[in-house]
Amino acid sequence: xxxxxRDTLQEQTFYEQVGGEETFRRLVHRFYxxxxxxxxxxxMYPEEDLGPAEExxxxxxxxxxxxxxxxxxxxxxxxxxxxxxxxxVDRAAHDAWLGHMRVALDELGLPAEQEQQLWNYLTYAAxxxxxxxx
Length: 134
Ligand code: HEM
Known about the structure:
Layout: H1 6-9, H2 14-17, H3 21-36, H4 51-64, H5 70-75, H6 80-84, H7 91-108, H8 112-129
The structure holds protoporphyrin IX containing FE (HEM).
């Protein structure tokens, strides 16, 4: 009887299923191209160079979906609502943020089920980040 390699019996993480680091890098890179052009969002980012923000968000998403824990090694517990408190995240910022994310996600061309899973999370997370009425 042929032995089944142990690896094939182990469940893949969502991170692995969607293509690992490369996929998350592509997603967040495209997202930040949108942010860079956005008159509402761009001024919210404290640093002149969006590169470090892009890196933090990429590492966060990789970790969230089961990839390496590099984000927390460098940044500690995410505490995302707290980290967004200095920024005015109102409905307009929320909509703009999700709009760029929608474009970036579409361009990844993931299988429908994986795309839906990511989108559900992103819309839920974005709603929970709103901290200002109006
Ligand atoms: C709803 C609209 C949102 C706006 C306007 C917004 C805006 C921002 C801004 C201005 C920063 C600071 C940039 C930096 O220096 O890193 C930031 C950081 C960050 N955001 Fe958001 N954000 C939003 C939603 C989200 C969501 C939904 C997530 C997660 C799914 C997220 C994850 C992060 C992460 C991981 C960081 C870096 C945290 C750190 O380690 O300091 N953001 N965001």
